[in-house]
TrEMBL record:
The chain crosses the membrane at residues 20-42, 48-67, 79-100, 112-132, 139-162, 174-194, 201-219, 234-255, 267-286, 292-309. It comes from Paenibacillus turicensis. InterPro entries: AA-Vitamin_Transporters, EamA_dom, EmrE-like. The keyword Transmembrane applies. It is a multi-pass membrane protein. This is Drug/metabolite transporter (DMT)-like permease. Its main location: membrane. Keywords: Cell membrane, Membrane, Transmembrane, Transmembrane helix. Residues 21-155, 171-310 form the EamA domain. Belongs to the EamA transporter family. It is found in: Cell membrane. It comes from the Bacteria.
Length: 325
């Protein structure tokens, strides 16, 4: 019977003072910012739940050989790892999105909901300290504050996002906070898992385990499947569906979890800020939305924070890997 053991070795994904793993996390998260390029056409024919379900089914079929090849790892799963897998596949992929969408649907101040969602890194840092006992790099919190300010400018510019603090106290705000906690927690749980499983296995399980929940959500939604009747339109829909599933979906998450093997969860959550930055750039290039000076300033602040954080202490971070014997 195959046994799997976890060993810790010095990080190999570093070059001088640079932590390549940190930038792999940033690249993986940045790829999620191109999703609107594929999603715009798909939303004309399918609902969000249907799109997400089909993406997971496509990716599940592609990653099935990985699970078969690494099946020995599955026998070593303990309740702790299984709970972490359920958290990232159900909580991070499905429930968090539902909570945030429900918060938006309830009305109220949209900017307040978005601002509360930006607290995601804070949840990740707290959970990483409590669950993984991570020690933060020197000058982390000043750089963390710079990144948060940059994210604020990127989202709201130089204006105040709300008219009164009471706008934070509403049911939609609680949903937004819940989504932020689940997304931040998914980063920490992912870091926990890549210390016990290969990053390819974690990626595969995240998609496959989410399928039953997404199937129930789609059935409960009860929406009709409005596939295009013209062959040319159907081809474009399928092309976009496979493109979204395999590029920002599968490839992006593979790169993300590969980087997470050598990057602390508390630091990785800041690398994920590349996601909103790429989203803004996509809106500029594709949707012709002009980037304001405030957004440009926020963009620079985020990249400066990521630049200095990536150089502080992460080259010495241990790499957690799994070997079979």
């Amino acid at each position: 019977m195959d046994n799997a053991s976890v060993r810790v070795k010095p990080a190999t994904l570093s070059f001088g003072k640079w932590n390549v793993g940190f930038w792999l996390v940033a690249i993986g998260a940045a790829s999620w910012g191109i999703e609107p390029l594929f999603r715009v056409l798909l939303l004309h024919s399918l609902t969000s739940a249907q799109i997400v379900l089909l993406e997971h089914v496509i990716i599940g079929a592609v990653v099935l050989p990985i699970l078969i090849k690494n099946r020995a790892e599955l026998r070593t799963l303990k309740w702790k790892q299984l709970g972490a897998l359920i958290f990232i596949s159900w909580g991070g992929s499905a429930i968090a999105t539902i909570l945030f969408t429900k918060g938006l649907a309830m009305g109220g101040n949209l900017n307040a909901l978005v601002l509360l969602q930006k607290l995601q890194p804070l949840f990740a840092i707290i959970l990483a300290r409590l669950l993984l006992k991570e020690i933060l790099p020197k000058n982390f919190f000043p750089l963390f504050l710079v990144a948060l300010v940059g994210t604020y400018f990127l989202t709201f510019g130089f204006s105040l996002p709300i008219g009164h603090w009471s706008e934070f106290i509403q049911m939609g705000s609680l949903f937004s906070l819940g989504a932020a906690a689940l997304w931040g927690g998914s980063t920490v749980m992912g870091r926990l898992l890549v210390g016990n499983l290969k990053y390819e296995t974690v990626t595969a399980l995240r998609f496959v385990m989410a399928i039953p929940l997404l199937l129930m959500i789609t059935i409960r939604e009860g929406a009709a499947w409005n596939w295009p009747t013209a062959s040319s339109e159907l081809f474009l829909v399928l092309l976009n569906l496979f493109g979204q599933a395999l590029l920002p979906g599968l490839l992006g998450l593979l790169i993300y979890y590969k980087g997470l093997t050598t990057t602390k969860a508390s630091v990785a959550t800041l690398a994920e800020l590349s996601f909103p930055m790429v989203s803004v750039l996509m809106n500029w290039f594709i949707m012709n939305e002009v980037i304001t000076w405030a957004q440009a300033f926020g963009f620079v602040l985020i990249w400066l924070a990521l630049f200095f954080i990536s150089k502080k202490g992460q080259a010495k971070a241990p790499q957690l890997s799994v070997t079979n014997k």
